[in-house]
Design brief:
This protein is of the alpha+beta class and 103 residues long. Helix content is 41%, strand content 18%.
């Protein structure tokens, strides 16, 4: 897919992004993020690795738009904040579809 990031055109593919990010250790997430494989990466880190540009040259929105068009799941900090804090037992029960009630 052809996309423009920081006024430069790039031909990106989903498999190309996955291959580029393979072996790259994710940095701590402080803002927008993207899920590539089973890892969560900061969107600016992905943009810097894939485009080889300085992070100040592009916006998170440009990279988020490109990653979403390629089919990756992108998240914003507000989406993560809306989820309730669950104990590990409550989380496992929720994943299994069981309901927990306080006694």
């Amino acid at each position: 897919m052809r996309c423009v990031i920081a006024r430069f055109p790039f031909d990106l593919t989903k498999s190309g992004v996955i291959a580029t990010m393979k072996g790259v250790k994710p940095e701590p997430i402080t803002g927008d993020s993207v899920i590539i494989g089973r890892r969560h990466y900061p969107i600016k880190q992905v943009g810097a690795v894939v485009t080889r540009q300085d992070r100040r040259d592009f916006t998170a929105g440009e990279v988020t738009r490109a990653m979403a068009h390629l089919g990756f799941t992108c998240r914003t900090p507000s989406e993560d904040a809306n989820q309730p804090d669950l104990t590990p037992l409550q989380n496992a029960s929720a994943l299994l579809g069981a309901t927990t009630s306080a006694v």
